[in-house]
Structures are given as C-alpha cells and as structure tokens.
Design a protein that fits this description.
- This protein is an alpha/beta fold.
- Helix 6 runs antiparallel to helix 11.
- The radius of gyration is 39 Å and the shape is globular.
- The two termini are 77 Å apart.
C-alpha cells in the first residue's frame, strides 16, 4: 500500500458496490461526488416513494433531454449502463468541490441518468422575436439618398426587428402627414447664396407649388401678380430680400400675415425691421441684423436631413471635398450662378438638385464641357492679403469685394498661402467667418470654440447663427473703431488652446 493520500473522488470510484446491491442486480448507489445539481429535484414526487408511472415519465423526459444535448444525442438506450456510468465519472471529475453536496437521506435513490446541464432548452424560456441584431450602426437620414444613387429603404441595423416595424408605421404616419401638408411657394433673391438656401428649403418642404427668382427691384412684382393667384391658405417663403421700398413691402406683407415667412442676411434699418415684425410677427422674420449668408437662418428651420443636403451645405460653405467638386460640384456651382441671373419660375432648372442623386449629377458633368474657373480664383490671385503667424498656424485675413463668395475666396487663399486658418468678411460688413483646413497628423480644430471664446471675452463681439457649422461673429462698430480687428486677431493667437483642444 502506498502512503500517498487518495482523494475522496478517486476512492469513491475505486470502491466496490455493496454485496447486497450486486446480488439483487441493482445499480450501485451514486457517490456524493457524482451528484449534479440538476438531480436534486425537491419536488413532491421526487422521493423514492414515487410511483412507477411517475418514475417512468421522468426517466423518459431525462433521456429525451440528454439526446438533445451537444454530445450528439447519445442516450441511455444507446450507451447502456456502462456508458452512463462513465459519463457520470467524467462529470464528477470536472465538477468543482464547492458544489458537491451529499445525498439527502440514507435511502435517497438518485439515478445516474440525470439531465445534462448543458441542455437548457427545457429550463430557459424561448427568446422573443424582438431580439436585436448586433451589427455596426449606420447614420440614418430622413432621405435615403446614397452616395452613388438611391437605395431601397431598409430598417436601421442594430435595432430590434420589432422596432423596425414600429419605424415603418411611423414612416407611414409621416407620409400621411406629408400628404396633408399644404404646398409651399418660395420667392428667392437673384444671388447664388440665396438660391442654394432656397433649394435646401425646397428639399425640406418637398411639396412645392413654385420657386420664383427675382432681383430686388422686382420684389413688388411678385406680390402684385403671382401672390394674388395663390390659394388663400398656401404658405409663402421669401428668401434674401430686404423690405425695399419699405412702405409698399410692409403693407403687402401684412396681407399675408400667418402664412408668410421672411429670411434675409442683410442688415435692415431698425425702423424697417420693427415694422416687418409688427406686420408678420416676430417669429416670421428671421435675419435683418446683418450676416454673411442666409444659409444658417434657413437651416435653423429645416427638420429633415439627407446626405445630399449635407453635400450642398459643404459646397455652399467651401468645405466640399476635391472629389465631389470635380465630379459635380464645379458644374453646379457655375450653373447656380447662371440660374441666379434669370427671372421667373426655376423649378425645372433645379430639378436635379431637388431629386438629390449625386450619381446622375456626375454622369451629366462627365459628358458636358468643363465650366470656366470660378471668378474667385482670379480675384484672389490678383491680390495680396495679410498673414498672421502664431504657433504652428498661419492665418490669412481677407476683405472680399461684393459679388464674390467669401467662403470660397477664403479657401482659395488658404491653398495659395498654405495657411491653416482664414478670417474673412465682405467689404463694408461687420460679420466675420473663421474657418480652416485640417492639419495633417493633428486632431481636429475647433473653430466654433474660438468664436465662443471671443464672444465671452470681448463685450463688443456678438454671436451670429452657425447652423451650417461655420464659426461666425460680429465686431460691433468696426468702421468707427478699426483697431478692434487687431484685438480680435491677437486674442485668436493667444487663445489657440481653444482651437486645438
């Protein structure tokens, strides 16, 4: 005999069954190391006094459960008593001692054909149908335009199938509300900035009665002819016009109170702004306080978003990619400038932009002649601009003449001087736009944080709308105190930590 102590499990396996059990032909009583927690059924009918019929039903239930296990469905009727005993020995060796419990009572007869712990089909309830598919989520837009064309609408991946059905019902309700929405008439000023803003507004409204374009001198032509032919309940939106002549425009606008909305970037005389707000209501007049673009005013009221609308915003603010500009942006930037010179209803001219299929725009641009270079390129190339160096940045300061796009001029100037930042405004105006290009190898620059820092630090710097994600601010009384621009530039240089955080 060896002096090495043997574990209780080994001694249990090596011990022989009592002679009485062997003579009677019964199977040896299971040792406590071989008991699974699944065998400790404390239900009223689990004791040795249960009837033969109950024991038979339980045995058949356990055998069927074991056949559904992941051991390939091997049951007692196939493996025999020897195979069942071997399986019990394997289970006892892998079972930790912390869960090994002794038999309940000396006469407790627990059979070794226990339910396999790996088979949980009879223990766990069925999973519901609304189980999420854990896949990478994609940004969901109101419009389902794709980069290279439309794709069929599909539920948002990463959400339960039940939620997708709920979204389908919500979309159906939105469709009913859209069908009940009144058609809208849009009047836009004859300039590219107002025209792009009107296109984005028309894409948000969708049900368009007409989109008319007129110069400032023919504003009253719309109210005297076209507006009188519209239905009495039809909404009217005016984009980019100043109330001039003030008396006639205020009187005409007051006739459409409750259904007329007005957007304009220009600074109006205080008395005209007050008169228009009294005639239409404060919420119906957006702007009139001086801004470099009408685009953020329009985007504040838009409720829908699409990939192509985002691209139009980038094209209007000078953030477009070189890829998109070469494919279709250059053609349509030139075409928008040409359309802005026309008069009348222009829905047919901008139908492709309203549809929003970049693939169709690229195919059209590929077969047409390359449009001429934007005039902003020649304007920037013929002038010199002051440069400000601080840290690792170079900032170019521009004062753009009337008739040119300040955002496009700023981008061209940054490329010319290899500058990372630009500070631009229209000549004679007080609103500045602060923008730049991403620096390779650095984290993203926060231009809007710099604008907010200036607004909080300097009392004569005022906030301006930034719904198009362009950092803007106004320097009050700049014509009277030109030195304030130098103070702003110095504050930007000293507060560059706001830019790089």
């Amino acid at each position: 005999d060896s002096d090495t102590p043997r574990s209780s499990a080994q001694s249990g396996r090596e011990s022989e069954a009592p002679s009485g059990d062997a003579e009677s032909g019964r199977k040896p009583r299971a040792r406590f190391e071989e008991v699974s927690l699944m065998d400790l059924d404390e239900s009223p009918g689990s004791g040795p006094e249960r009837s033969d019929s109950e024991r038979g039903r339980g045995d058949r239930h356990r055998r069927s459960s074991r056949r559904r296990g992941r051991r390939g469905g091997r049951g007692e009727d196939q493996a025999g008593p020897r195979g069942a005993s071997d399986e019990a020995d394997d289970e006892s060796e892998s079972m930790p001692e912390a869960i090994a419990l002794p038999l309940v009572g000396a006469d407790a007869a627990i059979e070794d054909d226990f339910v396999d712990a790996d088979d949980l089909s009879e223990i766990l309830s069925r999973l519901p149908d609304e189980v999420p598919d854990y896949e990478a989520a994609e940004p969901r837009y109101e419009d389902e335009e794709e980069e290279d064309g439309d794709s069929p609408s599909r539920p948002f991946r990463g959400e339960p199938r039940g939620r997708a059905r709920q979204e389908d019902e919500d979309e159906a309700e939105d469709a009913l509300r859209a069908a009940a929405r009144r058609r809208c008439a849009i009047l836009v000023h004859a300039d590219p900035d107002s025209l792009i803003a009107a296109v984005l507004l028309a894409r948000d409204v969708r049900q368009l009665e007409g989109l008319w374009i007129y110069p400032q001198s023919e504003l009253m032509t719309f109210f005297r002819s076209i507006a009188t032919d519209l239905r009495d309940d039809m909404p009217i939106v005016v984009v980019g016009f100043s109330p001039s002549p003030a008396r006639d425009v205020v009187q005409a606008a007051a006739l459409y109170r409750g259904r007329l909305s007005w957007f304009d970037r220009h600074a109006w005389p205080p008395e005209d702004l007050l008169a228009m707000r009294n005639a239409l209501g404060n919420e119906a007049v957006l702007g009139g306080e001086g801004l470099d673009s009408v685009l953020p005013l329009v985007l504040d009221t838009c409720t829908r978003r699409s990939r192509f609308s985002d691209k139009l915003v980038d094209l209007a603010t000078g953030r477009f990619s070189q890829h998109d500009f070469e494919r279709w942006g250059r053609l349509w930037r030139h075409r928008i400038g040409e359309i802005a010179k026309r008069t009348g209803d222009i829905r047919g001219d901008i139908a492709a932009l309203l549809a929003g299929r970049p693939s169709d725009l690229a195919k059209e641009a590929a077969i047409l002649a390359i449009p001429p270079v934007p005039p902003e390129v020649e304007w920037v190339a013929a002038r010199d601009f002051p440069l400000v160096h601080f840290g690792a940045h170079v900032m170019v300061v521009l004062e753009v003449d009337a008739g040119f796009d300040p955002t496009l001029c700023a981008r061209i100037a940054r490329e010319r001087y290899h500058a990372t930042l630009s500070l631009a405004r229209r000549a004679g105006e007080e609103t500045f736009s602060f923008a730049g290009d991403e620096v390779t190898g650095r984290r993203a620059l926060d231009y809007q944080a710099v604008a907010h820092h200036l607004i909080e630090k300097l009392e004569w710097v005022e906030a301006r709308p930034e719904a198009d994600h362009t950092a803007r601010f106004r320097i009050r009384d700049l014509a009277r105190v030109p030195s304030r621009l130098e103070e702003v530039i110095a504050e930007i240089a000293m507060g560059r930590s706001q830019l790089e955080r």
